[in-house]
Amino acid sequence: MNTAAGSQKQLDRLDRALSAGTLGDVANLMGELSPGDIAHLISSSPPPFRHVLWQLLEPEQEADVLNELPDELRNVFLEEMQPEALADIVGKLDDDDVADILQELPDALTNQVLEVMDEQDRARIETVLGYSDDVAGGLMSTDTITVRADMKLEVVLRYLRRHAVLPENTDAVIVVNRKDQYVGLLPVRTLLVSDPGVSVREMMDTTRDPIPAMLPATEVARRFERNDWISAPVIDDDGALLGRITIDDIVDVIREEADHSLTSLARIGEEDTFSTVLHTAPRRAIWLGINLLTAFIASSVINLFQGTIEKVVALAVLMPIVASMGGIAGTQSLTVLVRGMAMGHINKRNEGWLIGREAMVGVLNGVLWASVVAVAASLWFDDWTLGFVIAAALIINLITAGVTGAVLPLILQRLSIDPALAGGVVLTTVTDVVGFLSFLGLATLFYM
Amino acid sequence: MNTAAGSQKQLDRLDRALSAGTLGDVANLMGELSPGDIAHLISSSPPPFRHVLWQLLEPEQEADVLNELPDELRNVFLEEMQPEALADIVGKLDDDDVADILQELPDALTNQVLEVMDEQDRARIETVLGYSDDVAGGLMSTDTITVRADMKLEVVLRYLRRHAVLPENTDAVIVVNRKDQYVGLLPVRTLLVSDPGVSVREMMDTTRDPIPAMLPATEVARRFERNDWISAPVIDDDGALLGRITIDDIVDVIREEADHSLTSLARIGEEDTFSTVLHTAPRRAIWLGINLLTAFIASSVINLFQGTIEKVVALAVLMPIVASMGGIAGTQSLTVLVRGMAMGHINKRNEGWLIGREAMVGVLNGVLWASVVAVAASLWFDDWTLGFVIAAALIINLITAGVTGAVLPLILQRLSIDPALAGGVVLTTVTDVVGFLSFLGLATLFYM
């Protein structure tokens, strides 16, 4: 039962009940929440709470709640279940969701579950399981309602009425030919306002091209976004209808896609907000280790100029400024590119323009802040040479940062390395090395 | 006309036509694309191309394409139009989209447009304009189909058939009482399978609570996500029906919300991938300037230890390592928190647990990498004191980073400052200052 408007109040009451540890109240309150709200409650609870909440669920709620949980968390609960219990739950879900779940489970368990399912269910699930969940086929549900183009609308209406219930998000019935190939869509909103006497052929929409089963999930999401679809038919290479994808699964794809850029650029990996210490520490440690390597590279650059630093210790005081400004400017460019790529905005035609833009921005902001830093540094250490040196180094580094931030992701993509993931590390190495090298190098020229 | 499957091929042909400058072909190809695809084509073109493409549009395409364009870009085109042309276009759009557009325009222009609209349209638009676009009221469309609970379904079906066309994404008709207050929903999928003889009251879903007009857009989005809604009714404080929100607008909210964390943490602001140099440079310059201030603070810390650095120049070589490791670790914690907040996962009950988790992760990874650095530094400079000093500083800084990254966004939120926007700057200042202070401070103790 769904109580969206009430849910906030109830979640608050739940918080109190949980803190108070009055599990009876918690169970009652949870009975009133929608599966989505319960899933949200569980995933926004630290691990110790989570199993308590799960235990308190009524069995008939489990399937829908599981379906709303983030994959990682869902699998934790699933792996603790018996195959029979699993198959039972799985029977209650749309088969795209079932496929999602089974894809994540150990094969042994998956097979056990498939065995205890009935013929027909198994056949349908196995179609979807045939595709990985990052292509259209893996996102689709096979329960579709299909009609023939030569039917009259009144026949369609009678046919629909024979169903006890229609699949979720049925905004259109799918028109297929004898060979079960996709022909067009008959939107329900057309069906409802049209004269029952006319034929499907006269009213169907044939301008909506179906989605090939192997189309990448992100591209599917973009087509849904661009065309405001609620559902879309999925076909195989011969144009035969396989199933349909619905907006609710696309919303998840969009979330995960957007989340990927953020977590990758921040070097945390796809992490559950409430992962335990022992789960979190190693994932982050790897990135810290990689950063340590790049930091040592930067240090070895500084090491070349020990002599200069001993002579002009002010260099040691100012050098972090050059590196840090380069790091920020580079991250700005990198993020714009990574974001543009995720939105599918970057292509051969415009990447040259982008690199040029980033270079120019580097020049302008380089000159702007270099002059500020030059004056500040000169006055601080009463040494105008120092001011000139840091200004020159800053301009060099900001231009390098801008160009690198734009070119790097394009190169990484060509090498099919994830730009968001690898970009930040390489970038900061470049801006650190160039920053220290230009600053200390120029200083050596002028002071030694 | 929509050609999703063909769109990629066509976009490629367009690219060639554009590069070749054969505008005739471009115009023809654009005629075949869906508004979404055209909008995507325009927004993924550098500014010089954009106006060319816009000029090539057929007038009847303009309204739908505008509707699919990102706000910033849309306004560029709108502001070049005559009020009459605008009003004409605006007449073709859903009124939530119209409201979006008018909210962005200069008031003078808005009023001119409203004046040239007809009575009824204006009244409806003004309802929506009464709400800012970051609350439910600003997202809603007022064209709803309402029925009474005592109607028989056959009456509803006849009533629907009287419409030439139903509003987009009509997955349910809204049931209201005499006072026009929301009573429940009659899903179309129920309507289609139910016996026409029964009454709306028997079949309607009363468990779906409506959305209050003042509910924040992000919370509305979460409810759609959690409950897999296609549309939801919006009510005022007296429960009177104001309109409905549809999933296509929610998808945009989710995109923007996710995008906000990314762009804020990267300090680029909500920026169009293809903004011109003069538009981009100043926005980024501000953040570089702020970073410059914090960098000078870090430098002034180093400045305190000139004497120590002159004596042990290796300190200058190694100090960036301590700062950089702290920066990465802090960003990891900060991002996890900012992301958790955006997803509504963080609350009083779990924030304590999170801070503790981040501290512990800091301890573990601190000890791990400190020992590595200690050995590396000691061997590099053949000085075990140096190894001990940097190890101690690194542990101190990684713990500080973890705790600050977790506590800072919570504090900023209490002060209702955007954690994503301000978090990064404050964080790196802390990790730089603590990094240099602990490293050089300890070194001074041991060497002076």
UniProtKB/TrEMBL annotation, chains A, B:
Concerning Pfam families, the annotation shows: CBS, MgtE, MgtE_N
For this UniProt record, the keywords arranged alphabetically read as follows:
CBS domain, Cell membrane, Magnesium, Membrane, Metal-binding, Transmembrane, Transmembrane helix, Transport
Listed under GO cellular component are: plasma membrane
All residue ranges annotated as the CBS domain in the record = 140-203, 204-262
Subcellular location per UniProt equals:
Cell membrane; Membrane
Q: Where does the UniProt entry say this protein principally localizes?
A: membrane
GO MF: magnesium ion transmembrane transporter activity; metal ion binding
Q: What SMART domains does its record include?
A: CBS, MgtE_N
Q: Sorted alphabetically, which InterPro entries does this protein's record hold?
A: CBS_dom, CBS_dom_sf, Mg_transptr_MgtE_intracell_dom, MgtE_N_sf, MgtE_transporter, SLC41_membr_dom, SLC41_membr_dom_sf
Provide the topology term for how it sits in the membrane.
Answer: Multi-pass membrane protein
Q: Name the domain of life.
A: Bacteria
The record lists the membrane-crossing segments as 285-306, 312-338, 359-381, 387-412, 424-447
- Subunit structure, as described in the record: Homodimer.
> Family, per the entry?
Belongs to the SLC41A transporter family.
Main function: Acts as a magnesium transporter.
> Could you tell me what this protein is called?
Magnesium transporter MgtE
Species name for this entry? Answer: Luminiphilus syltensis NOR5-1B
